[in-house]
UniProtKB/TrEMBL annotation:
Protein name as catalogued: Uu.00g077640.m01.CDS01
Entry's transmembrane regions: none
Length: 257
């Protein structure tokens, strides 16, 4: 059933933005039929002697992503094995709940279900290290580049360090690419970055870390005094960083200068 009013406008706008990012991430693997509201992901195999691709087909309800959840129409491995049942079960994980943009998470989840020959092995990711009293409180700043930051849960996690009143200041930019800038007590910044790194990312690169620098370190200053803020664009990130030399470091770290 078609949506009307604000819900319909919101669903259409959010889906359009999500599809734009997906097509940028997987330009040769994603197709979308607006008439059937079906999204197809084709995953090429690396297995020798096989030319077939693994495919995932999802039908998107009219209310998605405001409400409802994508439906698995087909899930087939490169050896033509039916993966629909295990795919549906895997999609019931709590980190891909209705009400959020989840297509990128579902594609990654499907990739994980494929055989090792179909997908490169994942690198081991360390679990977050609990923060012990008295650990490093020296100022530290990190700049992280992400292939994309779209999933609502990840965006919320980036804005909310697990420790209350953590003393971290910073900015995040969702979308494609995603950018995170955190500055504060070293041990707490390390703990927050470790917690984020443990999530599933297509790319998670620390582009700048003051631990690698020899000069005297200080907490970066931002246009807001406390906490972590989400901004819309790369220029907003630059404007949020107050010190000119820190702006230059940010731009050079992400490859703009």
């Amino acid at each position: 059933m078609d949506l009307a009013g604000e819900d319909g406008n919101e669903a259409a706008a959010r889906l359009e933005a999500e599809l734009e990012l997906l097509l940028a991430m997987y330009p040769d693997a994603i197709t979308f039929s607006s008439r059937a509201r079906e999204l197809r992901y084709s995953h090429p195999t690396n297995a020798p002697g096989l030319k077939a691709t693994a495919t995932l087909v999802l039908r998107l309800p009219d209310a998605y992503p405001v409400r409802d959840f994508p439906e698995v129409i087909s899930a087939v491995g490169s050896r033509k094995e039916d993966l629909r049942s295990v795919t549906k079960t895997a999609f019931e994980k709590p980190d891909v709940a209705p009400g959020e943009e989840v297509l990128d998470a579902l594609v990654l989840c499907f990739q994980e279900l494929l055989s090792p020959q179909d997908s490169p092995p994942e690198q081991a990711v360390p679990h977050p290290t609990p923060l012990s009293p008295g650990r490093d409180v020296r100022p530290k700043t990190v700049i992280i580049w992400l292939h994309h930051l779209l999933n609502t849960n990840k965006r919320k996690l980036a804005l909310s360090p697990s420790m209350s009143d953590s003393g971290i200041v910073g900015v995040t930019k969702p979308g494609y690419p995603g950018v995170l800038v955190f500055s504060g007590p070293g041990a707490i910044v390390d703990s927050h970055v470790s917690e984020l790194r443990h999530q599933k990312w297509q790319a998670f690169e620390v582009r700048y870390d003051t631990d690698d620098e020899s000069e005297t370190k200080s907490t970066w200053r931002f246009s807001h005094d406390k906490g972590i803020r989400e901004v819309e664009s790369m220029s907003d990130v630059v404007q949020a960083i107050l010190e000119p030399e820190h702006r230059e470091l940010f731009l050079s770290s992400i490859g703009v200068k």
